[in-house]
């Protein structure tokens, strides 16, 4: 069960996806898109932790980044991308089949 604040954030992200993102050309370098990443992070970790992961993802999403598959980590850590972190996950090369 999510809090009211988390639900409001999730509804805001869905509104953005349906109205703004649906009417613009796709230009995201990552999979899943930044808005979907934020949705999954907030849904999994709540507004504060998930929001921080979403902000860090937005900071990584820039024109000179290589992009690729960047999933929400299974264990929460802002350092999950570094090999020395206990929550480190190797990036996948193909998307999961059951993701929507």
From TrEMBL:
UniProt KW Transferase keyword: no
Membrane topology type: Peripheral membrane protein
UniProt subcellular location: Cell membrane
Cellular component terms (Gene Ontology): plasma membrane
Entry keyword Nucleotidyltransferase: no
Keyword field: Cell membrane, Membrane
Family from the record: Belongs to the UPF0161 family.
PANTHER family (alphabetical): MEMBRANE PROTEIN INSERTION EFFICIENCY FACTOR-RELATED
Its job: Could be involved in insertion of integral membrane proteins into the membrane.
Listed name of the protein: Putative membrane protein insertion efficiency factor
């Amino acid at each position: 069960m999510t809090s009211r604040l988390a639900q409001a954030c999730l509804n805001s992200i869905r509104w953005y996806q349906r109205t703004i993102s649906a009417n613009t050309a796709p230009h995201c370098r990552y999979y899943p898109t930044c808005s979907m990443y934020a949705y999954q992070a907030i849904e999994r970790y709540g507004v504060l932790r998930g929001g921080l992961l979403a902000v860090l993802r937005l900071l990584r999403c820039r024109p000179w980044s290589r992009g690729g598959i960047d999933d929400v980590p299974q264990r929460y850590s802002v350092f999950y991308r570094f090999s020395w972190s206990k929550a480190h996950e190797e990036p996948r090369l193909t998307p999961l089949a059951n993701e929507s």
